[in-house]
Amino acid sequence: xxxxxxxxxxxxxxxxxxxxxxxxxxxxxxxxxxxxxxxxxxxxxxxxxxxxxxxxxxxxxxxxxxxxxxxxxxxxxxxxxxxxxxxxxxxxxxxxxxxxxxxxxxxxxxxxxx
Amino acid sequence: xxxxxxxxxxxxxxxxxxxxxxxxxxxxxxxxxxxxxxxxxxxxxxxxxxxxxxxxxxxxxxxxxxxxxxxxxxxxxxxxxxxxxxxxxxxxxxxxxxxxxxxxxxxxxxxxx
Lengths: 114, 113
Hints:
Chain A is mainly β. Chain A has no helices and eleven strands. In chain A, strands 2, 4, 5, 6, 9, 10 and 11 form a seven-stranded mixed β-sheet that branches. In chain A, strand 4 (31-38) and strand 5 form a beta hairpin. Classes of the chains: A mainly beta, B mainly beta. Chains A and B meet through strand 5 and strand 10 of A and strand 3, strand 4, strand 8 and strand 9 of B.
C-alpha cells in the first residue's frame, strides 16, 4: 500500500527563493496535516485540513507560509520568500478522520535554506 | 560553537532487556494517545495507540500503559533489539483544541549489542 508521498525529499535553496513542498495523502484519508521538525522545537503542527478545508492554521509561523489543498489527493506547503531559519524537515501526514484515527507520516522533505 | 536544541531524554539498554519509555501529557481531556518510532532520516512510524477509556493495550513486543490520574503514558518494549534504536514520541489528541494531535519532545533509545 502506498503511504503518504512527499516531494521533494531534499531541497537546498537560496534565501529569498520560493519553496513548494508537495504531498499526496493516503487514499481515503480525509484529514491532512503539515508538521515541521527542528532540533530547537521538535515536531510542530503547522496546519491541518479536514475534507480539503483548512481547520487550524495557528501553527503557521508567519505570512511567508501558506498551504493549500485543492483536492483530496494533493496538498502544497509554500514558503515565499524563504529564510535560513526555515531550514527543517517538513512532514506531511494523513488520517482517516482527525482526532479519532491514527496519523500516518510521510518520509519528510528536508529543506535547507542558505 | 555550542549547539542549542532540544535535549532529548535518553535511554540506553542492553539487547534482550526490556525497555520502558515514559511520557507525561498535558491535557486531562485528551482522549487518544499514540506512540511513534522515528529512525534517523525517516518519518515517525506508528507503533501502538490507546484510547482514554483503556489503561493498557498490548501489541507485538510492545505494551502501552495509560494512567489518567497522573496524566502519564508509558511504552514497554520486551526483549529490546538493536533495530529498536530510535527516537520515540508520544502524542495526545486534544478534543478541546480542535482535536489537534500534539507531540512530546521524544526519548532516544539506544540498544547496546
